[in-house]
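I have been asked to look over a protein record a colleague put together. Alongside the sequence sits a line of tokens, each denoting a local backbone shape. I have pasted the whole thing underneath without changing anything:
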Amino acid sequence: MSPGGHLVTTLAACGAAGAVTQSWPVVAGVAAGGFLIDVDHAIDYVLFEGQRDLRPGVFLRYYVEGRVKRVVLGLHSYELFGLLAVVAWWSEWTPLWAYLAGAVLHLGLDIAFNGEFVPGNIVAFYSFVYRARHRFSGPALLSKDRREAAPDGFWRAFFRGAAPAPVATSGERS
């Protein structure tokens, strides 16, 4: 899903959480899990991709155009969710449960909308162990030939995200 899509759905989830609980810590937890979870893309971009151009448009285009070489994404993993659920259960810390609720929303939307960019099993892709078994290789984990160029302008790319390139059928020329 596009970053803008995650922002809009997270704002709606935060509104609902705030209306139901009237708790700012819960709203903050949902916001962190629903939208700020994507900070791991920035961590990958700098630490594992070696990129130094931190302008938002350059960073976004890098991902939208599918130029990723390493896919670590430590926060996008079932294993971390499981560990955090154990900590939340043990500590009874409501904001951590709220983070997990936002993160599950985020991951569910990623699974629903990003499958066309993952040639293998999109559900398995969000396992850290699965990505590790593929040595976090972007070319092995992500479909490079199914992406179009990023749309012009930061906000268009932010809200539209990546678009799959048309796939030629056997009777068409590509």
Q: What stands out?
A: Residues 3-160 form one domain. The first helix runs from residue 3 to 21.
